[in-house]
Amino acid sequence: MISENVLLRLYLRSADMHHHAPAYERIVQQAARNRLAGATVLRGIMGFGTRGLVKPSDYRLIGDSPVIVELVDSGEKLLPFLAAMSETMHHGLATLERAAVLVYRPRSQPTNQKTQLPGGLKPLSTLPNTQGVLPMHTDSVGVLLRIFIGESDTFNHKPLHEAIVAKARELGLAGATVLQGAMGFGANSVMHTDKILVMSSDLPIVIELIDSREKIERLLPSLDGMVAEGMITMEEVKIIAYRHDPADQARKQSEG
């Protein structure tokens, strides 16, 4: 049976701490205690937000990097959870979007249910109202742009994902996160993997950018000239939290 739920995405940094532990760990632990349907942590390799640029590092496991925490459940369960997490997540961006759960199978409960696609999702306007739930937040509809390219793609003699992030930052977009895949294929149908024996230097890269439709549209002409091969997708999301500390702006300006 298909159920329509909500996908909550929290954008923060691996170095963000709460009570001497990474904030993303606290978020996942609380989600488990609240018995949410699921949580996934995605760690990026570079990006930027209100606190400036996070650059690629040779020490990704111990250095600061962008982190996305994805949680899925009903809006009735996610909204109180998000309110409770406001003390854990002091900075960053959070979005809500509709998600149709096609399969949810705990190992202890096997089923013969067949998987099928839904007819469609409800509009974003039917998402839970977040007004008054979170401090320092906006409540607006924005666009999530995903750019699928390869790690070896370049533009003007520099990695393409770095060039795209730099252009997005130059245009004043709210933020960007670069994720590196372990395996995949794209427009040329060539399989790429991170297995040591293959020694691939062209792993899949996904760049996620979130902002208003108007700001995303400013970036598109630049992408036309930069992305020679790949795929770009977009979807509407509800931006429910965009925290900003004035000290972060001064830090961002000092970086140039």
Largest sheet: 10 strands, antiparallel
Sketch the topology as an H/E string, one letter per element: EEEHEEEEHEEEEHEEEEHEH
Helix content range = 10-25%
Radius of gyration: 19 Å
Total number of helical segments?
A: 5
- Share of β-strand residues: 35-45%
Unreliable segments (pLDDT under 50, ≥5 consecutive)?
Answer: none
The number of E-state strands comes to 16
Multimerization status: single chain
Task: Give the total of domains.
Answer: 2
CATH class label of the largest domain: Alpha Beta
What's the N-to-C terminus distance?
Answer: 52 Å
The CATH architecture of the largest domain would be 2-Layer Sandwich
- The helix-and-strand class reads alpha+beta
Shape: globular
Q: Let me know the average pLDDT.
A: 82
CATH fold-level assignment of the largest domain: Alpha-Beta Plaits
Strand order in space, largest sheet: 4-7-1-8-16-9-15-12-5-6
What does the model show?
- By secondary structure, this protein is α+β, with helices and mostly antiparallel strands.
- It has 2 domains: 3-104 and 120-139 and 241-245, Alpha-Beta Plaits, CATH 3.30.70; 140-238, Alpha-Beta Plaits.
- It is built from 5 helices and 16 strands.
- The strands form 4 sheets. Strands 4-7-1-8-16-9-15-12-5-6 form a 10-stranded antiparallel beta sheet. Strands 2-3 form a two-stranded antiparallel ribbon. Strands 10-11 form a two-stranded antiparallel ribbon.
- Helix 3 packs antiparallel against helix 4.
- The longest helix has 14 residues, at 213-226.
- The chain starts with a strand and ends with a helix.
- The mean pLDDT is 82.
